[in-house]
User: Which sequence fits this backbone?
């Protein structure tokens, strides 16, 4: 894909009965100063006013940028994101949830500038911004990620996908989002990307995550604990240990594996001789 000074950004939003927060999310897109975008909205057959809100939004912005509305059955967030990703034609992709919104009108402009300044950049990530009871709080995740990204990600999924931009081709190459119900949708993608491409970690913020009762990961203490347990499941699946990182690549692990194999073989030989 040809990379230009004005890369096209595909904004993806998945909706299902999202009438409460969706207007704010959509307004934050149409207020962006960066206009080389497309907006793909994947709705899982909402039964409230969501579709009416989307159709009004499409009409308002018909002459400004492409807005594509698609539908798929409700099979989880991961599936909805993957289905929408298949429709993306932009060089860069960003996932804006229906209950999140862009921090300011220059958010996409700043993200595009980072990619322009780093032609080989595959992905970038910034700080985490949450809105709690109307107040914004910046969580400076870059302070955790910059010293040693691999160790940081071996401890927990510290990368906020709300403030992460990725080359569309890379999302597809590394399998997109997980569709199971036992792990975070994006953690595996970050771990796979990390093994091949270092992200640009920027002390900046692009998108705001709203904490509310309906949130799938932070709506309650139970949901938060469940999200943490899912992250540990992903670590086991991807062969990641806290502080050690991708242990299968470590020399110590290879030596340990070699000696265990040797001991097992010696034991088998002794048993045969004993017979």
Assistant:
């Amino acid at each position: 894909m040809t990379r230009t000074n004005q890369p096209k950004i595909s904004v993806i939003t998945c909706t299902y009965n999202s009438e409460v927060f969706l207007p704010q999310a959509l307004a934050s897109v149409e207020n962006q100063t960066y206009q080389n975008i497309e907006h793909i909205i994947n709705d899982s057959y909402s039964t409230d006013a969501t579709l009416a809100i989307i159709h009004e939004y499409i009409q308002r912005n018909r002459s400004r940028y492409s807005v594509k509305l698609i539908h798929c059955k409700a099979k989880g967030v991961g599936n909805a994101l993957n289905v929408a990703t298949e429709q993306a034609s932009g060089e860069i992709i960003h996932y804006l949830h229906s209950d999140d919104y862009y921090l300011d009108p220059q958010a996409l402009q700043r993200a595009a500038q980072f990619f322009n300044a780093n032609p080989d950049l595959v992905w970038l990530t910034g700080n985490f911004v949450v809105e709690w009871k109307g107040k914004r709080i910046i969580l400076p995740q870059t302070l955790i990620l910059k010293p040693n990204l691999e160790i940081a990600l071996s401890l927990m999924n510290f990368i906020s996908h709300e403030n992460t931009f990725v080359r569309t081709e890379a999302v597809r190459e590394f399998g997109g989002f997980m569709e199971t119900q036992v792990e975070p949708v994006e953690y595996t993608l970050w771990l796979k990307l990390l093994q091949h491409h270092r992200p640009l970690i920027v002390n900046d913020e692009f998108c705001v995550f709203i904490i509310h009762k309906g949130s799938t990961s932070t709506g309650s203490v139970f949901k938060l604990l469940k999200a943490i347990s899912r992250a540990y499941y992903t670590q086991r699946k991807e062969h990641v240990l806290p502080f050690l990182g991708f242990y299968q690549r470590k020399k110590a692990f290879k030596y340990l594996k070699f000696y265990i194999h040797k001991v097992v073989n010696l034991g088998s030989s002794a048993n045969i001789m004993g017979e």
Q: What stands out?
A: Residues 251-274 form the longest helix (24 residues).
